[in-house]
Design goal:
Elements lengths: L3 E4 L5 H7 L4 E4 L2 E8 L12 H19 L6 E8 L5 H12 L5 E6 L10 E8 L3
Parallel strand pairs: 4-5
Antiparallel strand pairs: 1-2, 2-3, 3-6, 4-6
Length: about 130
């Protein structure tokens, strides 16, 4: 029997099938979440601004964590990939909207591009399950 459980919340099946990855994997009390981007799953809308993409990516992250049995307060680490590091302050402001003053460990790096040309950031997370 596998020691891992794949997590693909309702509505993300087409992403799993097209790109061949799960939204998250649970192993023991750990949750590893694949990079979440600023795409609204219902209609595949991508807002042009980094602030709105960050809000959508974190909304998506919250949904994946909840489907896995975790939540934002249990995030241990965020890895953020951005195509423009000068937007780091804007992205950090949105992180505060979601995490308040309970900041997870974090790494932010600039990359030349992401999977779709209109994407400006991607957020990957490690968390533990809720009690």
């Amino acid at each position: 029997m596998p020691k891992t459980k794949m997590i693909d919340p309702e509505g993300t099946e087409s992403i799993r099938d097209a790109f061949k990855f799960s939204q998250a994997v649970v192993a023991g009390d750990r949750v590893e979440v694949s990079g979440q981007v600023g795409v609204r799953v219902e209609d595949m809308h991508i807002p042009p601004e980094a602030r709105e993409q960050a809000r959508q990516a974190l909304t998506n992250l919250k949904g994946v964590l909840e489907a896995a049995g975790s939540s934002l307060p249990n995030v241990l680490h965020l890895t953020l990939y951005t195509t423009d590091i000068s937007e780091s302050r804007t992205i950090s402001e949105v992180i505060v909207e979601f995490f308040g003053d309970r900041y997870p460990a974090q790494t932010m790096v600039q990359v030349s591009s992401l999977v779709l040309p209109q994407l400006r950031l991607e957020i990957q997370a490690s968390a533990v399950l809720d009690d």
